[in-house]
Design brief:
The structure is a single chain. The chain has eleven helices and nine strands. It has 353 residues and is an alpha+beta fold. The chain has two domains: 105 residues, no CATH class; 188 residues. The strands form two sheets. Strands 3, 4, 5, 6, 7, 8 and 9 form a seven-stranded mixed β-sheet that branches. A two-stranded antiparallel sheet has the order 1-2. β4 and β5 form a beta hairpin. The longest helix has 32 residues. The protein is elongated, with a radius of gyration of 30 Å. The N and C termini lie far apart (96 Å).
Length: 353
């Protein structure tokens, strides 16, 4: 049998051929890596989640009301360890293998939080959010309720009422003539759907807003921190009665002072001093001192109105609140108020330290 010696197995390619082959391989490797990066970016862009907007503080502000992505992630780092103990409102599925009930998370935890913040910040409907995040509308409802309850208890466990020594340590110069001020208080109202029951209508109807509303009392420390948030009450309640039922009287002491609007007729309810614009009865005029006092209090009280405006930048409260979410509106409102301490800088730029 003849052996074919037509191929020289001992021969080696020329160096130039090896260099050319290596260059081609390197180019292909780079091309594959570029394509992989493009694919990953395409996946991020196609998925409506936080990572898609991480590079734009403007988008983060629009979708969440957090000032920047850095602000939001700083807040997330504080709450993330507790998310593992979250009690979830969700459907339970039975696995075929074990027969055990397991809770399935449709989105990563941080995207659930992002979805919840979009609901607060933009007031987006559940169906809209379901389309954006490619999940079922029922899942969106569960996520919103879960996070409302979770943040309500988590942020509510933080002691926001400050000792008077700390309030005075951070007192802005504008309060030099009101150094004993512990908190600036005001009421705010949220419009709600009119109940079909005439009895309920009479309870939630606000003569001030000429609409059915929920009403709450909010307190602001002189340096701008939210230090008190009451529950929501029926809109027919008076400022005095809301103040009485809110629980704030229990934390006031004789060496403090509160700053309120002239509608708060609470002199016999509190143990402390009250800074309030002067009253003018029919046929009388204010003295020069009363005018100056009223102007000074009005200039300082405007800060609590700015706070309320920030709370209502959460567009969920722009529209009429449907009675279908009345079971969780108290949590949603409280969370929106408490988030103000984390989302923004000071109310007055000069107070930044």
């Amino acid at each position: 049998m003849e052996i074919d010696c037509g191929h020289d197995y001992c021969s080696v390619p020329e160096p130039a051929a090896l260099d050319s082959s290596l260059c081609e391989n390197e180019e292909l490797t780079r091309e594959i890596e570029d394509l992989r990066k493009q694919l990953e970016q395409a996946k991020v862009n196609s998925r409506f989640g936080l990572q898609r907007f991480a590079g734009s503080d403007e988008d983060i502000r629009f979708y969440t009301r957090f000032a920047t992505y850095k602000h939001m992630m700083a807040f997330w780092e504080q709450i993330e360890p507790s998310t593992h103990r979250m009690i979830r409102v969700t459907s339970s599925n039975v696995t075929r293998e074990t027969g055990l009930y397991v809770k399935i998370r449709a989105l990563p935890a941080i995207d659930e939080f992002f979805l919840f913040m979009m609901h607060l910040a933009l007031g987006l409907k559940q169906k809209d959010l379901a389309h954006r995040f490619h999940v079922h509308q029922t899942t969106v409802s569960h996520i919103i309720t879960t996070w409302a309850n979770f943040l309500y208890f988590l942020l509510g466990s933080v002691q926001i009422w400050l000792p008077k020594e700390r309030v005075r340590a951070y007192l802005p110069e504008e309060f030099e003539n009101f150094r004993d001020t512990q908190v600036i208080l005001d009421c705010t109202e949220l419009r709600c759907q009119t109940p079909s029951s005439l009895l309920l209508q009479s309870e939630v109807f606000s003569s001030y807003k000429s609409h059915c509303t929920f009403k709450a009392l909010i307190g602001l420390a002189p340096h701008g921190a939210v230090t008190f948030v009451s529950g929501l009450y029926a809109g027919s309640i008076s400022d005095r009665e809301l103040f009485k039922q809110s629980g704030i009287i229990d934390v006031l002491t004789p060496d403090m002072a509160i700053m309120v609007d002239k509608g708060f007729l609470i002199d016999n309810l509190v143990p402390c001093k009250i800074h309030r614009p002067a009253f003018v009865t029919k046929g009388t005029e204010m003295s020069a001192g009363e005018v100056r006092h009223t102007q000074s209090v009005a200039r300082l009280r405007v800060h609590v109105e700015r706070l309320i405006r920030r709370v209502k930048e959460h567009k969920l409260f722009d529209a009429v609140i449907p009675l279908s979410i009345s079971g969780s509106i108290n949590q949603l409102f409280a969370v929106s108020c408490l988030l103000i301490n984390y989302q923004n800088g000071p109310h007055v730029k000069a107070w930044a330290q």
